[in-house]
Amino acid sequence: MSVIEAHRLLIGGEQVAARSGGEFETTDPSTGQVIARLARGTAADVDDAVGAARAALPIWRATKPADRGRALLAIAARLLEEQDELARIEVIDTGKPLRVAKGDVVVAARYFEYYAGAADKLFGTTIPLGDEFLDYTVREPLGVSAQVIPWNYPLQMGARGLAPALAAGCTTVVKPAEEASLSLLRVAQIIGESGLPAGVVNVVTGIGEEAGAALVSHPGVDQITFTGSVEVGQSIMRAAAANVVPVTLELGGKCPTLVFDDADLDAAAATLTAAAIQHAGQTCSAVSRLVTTAPVHDELVARVRRIMDDARVGPGFDDPDLGPVITAEQLARVSGYVDGAAAGGIEVACGGTVAEEAERYGGYFFRPTLLDHVPPDATVAREEIFGPVLSVFDADSEDEAIALANRSDYGLVCGVWTRDVARAHRVAAAIEAGQVFINGYGAGGGVELPFGGYKKSGIGREKGIEGLNSYLHTKNVCLRL
Ligand code: NAP
Ligand code: MG
Fold first, then answer.
1. Best substitution site from 26, 42, 45, 152 to test ligand 1's pocket, by max atoms within 8 Å of Cβ?
2. Sequence-ordered alpha helix ranges (H) in 132-286
3. How far apart are alpha carbons 86 and 184 in whole angstroms?
4. Predicted local confidence at residue 5, as pLDDT
């Protein structure tokens, strides 16, 4: 993008400037260059957007479920048609490798396909009370859903919240992340072009403390879906408490992978390293802790090191193994964590520094980094770094491996590698995490699989059929005959 494009808010089907006239800039993390100007929405714009969503609610919730489903299928088809353009936007805005961005578009489309099929299957039940009563339940949309999205996977996270909300009959206001709003603006346009009534999906770009805070505390909002950091999630829960509205919180992770001595080491090393460096480690489900036992430690670490040393770092459009981190501040943060670990005597087995590509391209590149024999109480062992940094922990036994995995404030996803089926299930049962993958990590986009956190990783479940519950009331109707 040579010319800096300007983007506006999307409210009630219209593209409008922020009422204040304010704007902000977004940059390409691969180059550090400004790529676009966006409208800086504030409380007044949020008020307009929530008003538009409320006005559209009677129309959308009265739309026949089959027609809602058909509309969602049309959106999925349009997303796939525009895969190249959407991926191009995501690469320039987030710095991620091109093929990862293309995959994100496919996953986004899958959310709309999946929930399209659910729109006309939101059954209630009949509850037997004897001959004197007829009792049944109906599922009703919660109303206006506020959706606050992070910058790392805007397309996936946006679709993950929008598709079930729309299938359930809710209308929405989306606040994308400051650093990466462009793809969701385009998705909202596509949704409008797909024939959904104006106001069903509104987008207010802006700053978290302004537009985001105004949205989650707005009295016209009936439900909040948030994906992001623990601190902001806590503030959103407080805002939700004031209006007594439900929240779904998908927060951080410090995801462990346990490799036992009977594991397929080649497969384990390839899979866990890919999951550690995907999108430069800026993934809530990134593998950031590797727990292993002495018999395989050296062989496994050697394999992981080799993959990390060979990993291609570069701008997203070159389709490397990993692109940049999102901002200069994030690069400094990642460096700070690794420098602190090294200063504390932790062994840096590979990487550990800003990559030479940072100077060459002007972007925020960090080398894939392996920290070995990390003490469980080290800062890098406990805190989410959000960079391509993997810490290795030593366990003497299965029980100790489980204890190390669970020794975290987070509980999002866990990997387990073993050929022993009984051990696999025993460990899965003992792990405190919303998802456990055995001899693999991830399953396509995981659209069908309930996803969410134990402990500080969040509240509620997204994805799968369970994800619909966030957007539905259950009403019980009891008739005395
Ligand atoms: P973040 O700083 O919490 O921001 C997330 C979103 O919240 C952004 O849109 C942000 O706007 C907005 N926001 C900030 N302050 C707000 C406030 N006071 N009120 C309302 N909204 C506010 O998180 P991030 O740095 O973008 O994303 C990284 C985090 O997300 C990591 O912790 C990661 O693990 C987590 N994450 C979790 C999942 C999951 O599914 N569990 C998936 C992806 C990411 P601005 O952009 O303007 O600040
Ligand atoms: Mg950007």
1. 152
2. 154-168, 182-193, 213-216, 230-243, 265-277
3. 9
4. 80
